[in-house]
Amino acid sequence: MKVKLPASIHECKPDQLVKWIMLAEVIKERQDDELFQMLDFQCQLISIFSGIKVNKVKQFSLSDVQRLSEHITRMLASYSYSDPIGQVLIDGQKYVFEMDFRLISTGQIIDLKLIEDIASDPVQALAICYVESGMEYCQEDDRGRVLNPNDKRYEIFKKEFDGAEFMNFFSFFLLEYEKRKDAILALQTIRMKMNMMNPNQKKKSTDLMNGSNGQQSFSESEKKLEQTVTQLRNNLM
């Protein structure tokens, strides 16, 4: 039986890598030095990256199982974390990820907040965070029709997305989601408060969000806002 495996981590799909991460968590709990020699583990590994059911993989010869699993483990071991590049190119279309969470749109904040368990379907987060270059998030035409809906990006990213960029994104954002989720909610609350301020107050708060000290005279409410913004900025770094 011909088995097609990714040649490098760049060719791996997000769902494959998430399944591997979940399997890796099980590995860390095991103290068996011979774990990588365990046939059951090797069969699961091959199943994840080939798409072949585990029971079918178990029908392979011992030499084939060891050969295929060795290729996968070498491929995974070659990966080392770095910050996401912040862009991917798929079929000639560039998609951009704004890594400064102070600059993402309110719509993205709301949609990220609605995801109950990002790890179970990380492509949802990819479709929200990586947007077509030169376009706004869920940009509308003159008739109010969304030109670049999330569902379209979701289907594209599910079929193709650079595996290394995904792993970097996962480490950068998804693994710390609970922390960032609270920070994103706080950012949304601050934006609502800013919309209720007068122009002078809004300018001071905007300076704070951008990291500028601004003027030194504040009311009690502004001081509280300054403290909140400072803490928020620290959480988002």
Structure description:
The chain has 237 residues and is mainly α. The protein has 3 domains: 9-77, no CATH class; 87-177, no CATH class; 179-236, no CATH class. Helix content is 55%, strand content 5%. The protein is built from 11 helices and 3 strands, in the order H-H-H-H-E-E-H-H-E-H-H-H-H-H. Helix 2 (39-50) crosses helix 4. Mean pLDDT is 80; it is low at 214-219 and 221-226.
Annotate the secondary structure layout.
Elements lengths: L13 H16 L9 H12 L3 H4 L4 H16 L9 E4 L2 E5 L8 H9 L8 H7 E3 L17 H10 L3 H10 L4 H19 L3 H11 L10 H17 L1
Antiparallel strand pairs: 1-2, 2-3
List keywords for this structure.
237 residues; mainly alpha; 3 domains; three-stranded antiparallel β-sheet; 11 helices
Q: How far apart are the first and last residues' alpha carbons, in Å?
A: 49 Å
Tally of individual helices: 11
* Total strands: 3
Low-confidence stretches: 214-219, 221-226
Number of domains: 3
The chain-level mean pLDDT equals: 80
As laid out across the biggest beta sheet, the strand order is 1-2-3
Biggest sheet statistics: 3 strands, antiparallel
